[in-house]
Amino acid sequence: MPDISSTLKIHRDRCADHLSHPVLATSLEAALQGAIRLIGAFQTDVDITVKGTSNFVSSADLAAENAIVSTIREQFPEHAIISEESHSDRADAEHLWVIDPLDGTSNFLHGIPHFAVSIGYYERGAGKIGVVCNPITADWYVAIEKQGAWHNGQPMLVSRAERLNQAMISCGFHYDRGKMMEATLATLADLFRADIHGIRRFGAAALDIANVACGQYEAFFEYRLSPWDYAAGAILLNEAGGRITDCSGVHLPLGASSGVCATNGSLHPAMLEQLASHLQHFQSGDC
Ligand code: IPD
Ligand code: CA
Ligand code: CA
User: Fold this and answer.
1) How many angstroms separate the CA atoms of 81 and 71, rounded?
2) What is the tens place of the pLDDT at every residue in 163-193?
């Protein structure tokens, strides 16, 4: 049986076979280098620093980010970078990389094999390439603007469900334990009242959005995420036929945090309606 690194390369190449762009090879190599660092550190003792309530950064996040950034810098030293742990260049740069070296840090630290490297490449604010990779399962989700989205070489397509009572919905809880958490819980209760099939909370937003793009979930929402959580996923989802906005239906920013509503497109109005009724509970800033 092939080891993880060989399977990672096979699945990466199956995606790359369908796509073409001058920075694609660097995007995939950067993600692979990050993934290799995460595989090496998974289920070992890593150094952990606390950023806030239930919000951690580990030596694995930092090693993966270093590997990703060096790979990009080697090829494109003049490109701008926004990354979770170290870079905050301009969001409207001509060439911009938005990087989450380890999405799902809590899962990683608990030994749960559900986390990802997420890399989005943008030109003057327009999404060009999205790459999300789960190093442990060797799942690659790769999309290029106007060329479609691919999962391990298979085309990604959103679900055709048209009603909430046909939907499996995924969500995330922002680190806040105040009004935003209450609003999230209240939204879940409302969604169950709308007879959805179920709620899933797996703990890695980039994979959640990729899973909407693959048609596994009809929708995903979280009341606050950062650009590196959704920059790559947004490109995947748009290319797979879905829709992604903030929780009021507005285009997502790259230079600030935002709520996220990601759907198969058909369910977008219904999801926004569900989210809207709870926005006022924390938008006063008191959360
Ligand atoms: C987190 C994950 C999680 C989401 C959090 C994110 P991190 O990213 O995506 O699912 O609920 O809001 O911050 O911190 O593991 O990179
Ligand atoms: Ca993240
Ligand atoms: Ca992260």
Assistant:
1) 12
2) 999 999 999 998 778 889 999 999 999 999 9
